[in-house]
Amino acid sequence: MLRFFIFIAIVFSFITAKSQCNDQLVRDASSKVGNFYYVKDFKIKFKKAKKNKVNKMLHSLILNRNTTYLFILGDAKEYDGRIMFEMFGEKGKLLSSYNPGADKYYEKLQFTCESTGMYQITLQFSEGQEGCGIMVYGSKPSYER
Amino acid sequence: MKNIIIVSFLFIFFISCGDSDHPDSQDLLTDFEFADSLTSQVIISEKIIDDMIHSIPSPIEMTSLILESGAEFDDKILIDPDRVDNYATAHSKAIALGMFGTELGYLNIYGKTMISVEYLTAVRSLARDLRVEQFFDFHTLKRLADESDNMDSLINVTTQGFSRMDAYLREQKRTKASVMIVAGTFIEGLFIATQIRAKTVNDQLTERIGEQKMSLNNMIVMFEVYKSDPEVEKLVVDFNELKTLYDQVQIITTYGEPITKEVDGMLVIEDQSTSEVKMAEELLTQIIVKTKELRTKII
Description:
heterodimer; A: alpha+beta; 4-stranded antiparallel β-sheet; about 20% helix; globular; B: about 300 residues; two-stranded antiparallel sheet; 4 strands
């Protein structure tokens, strides 16, 4: 009977781990939006990338002038992959959550937009590792009344 | 003992297969003959559509700007929530859900919770008919609406509900429903902004109205995929009339290198590019009139 309960406990812990990758991750990241208005979230879950391949989510966003955007990143700790976020404007890369020089991952990025336009965003995991992560972003108008 | 384990395993397996974000209830959109066509043309286009849907700003971005611009709240421009029963088809219900969702955001952001409950009820009714009710915890939303110090939570929970509903519809290959909801969101946000701008000169609002050119162009591209549907074809005609006006709006960008710094562990990026919207007052007036015409046809 003891073995049976251990078995149940293992299966439930597996289920809990799965939910951490989904709902809890979303809740944790969303709770960090603070005084910004929550706008959207993007979830990614990738297996380890094959050799010379990159698993990457690409999307476009229209961002508006006179608006400050807050990007919050979160990843499930049961996987090795750390989430990496980059944003590109028409003239190239504007921001990256990973600083290779310092080998530092940022979980919060704030972008003050002064030019309305289409921006490309990418989400991926460090070194093509398996991972589960989320990017939540919020906005607030940043002009003086 | 062995049987207990097998039965338990099967029980747990079925629980774990269920995802709280994706309830098993059959989506009646198929009953409305509203599910996307499975023609190869639509499947190919859906990758582009998916990206375009994300590119359309959420209603909270427009309504928060309206609030921050100092504009007065105006309840006379809102749709009567009793009209919710007039929407008979899945197509009209989806557009109406987007419109009522925007109005709910407008009401919430101005703290008009007494009225917002009626709009919450309208959203609930439409969401139920479209079988996406599961993304709105109406008891929680009602409680948050009743607690005046929880406005930020109410706004964020509502926006999250719409965001998850949108993701769910696209995962279920019901991108067309998602496009119609976004269309309703877009037109109602533009309608509220233009109606407020018609009454008060407001430079920030004028700029934001002009900036909708990009979203409008994306909306029309999305409609093109589904224009074999006569109802969508009508929208294409109407939105193109608005586009003809928007084609005269100029958005001029001057590029600059962004400045990046670290503040309290957060990466802060200050954009040094700037954009300017050029739109004559006469053109703005025409856009205000055309937006109202378009919105009147839809509601």
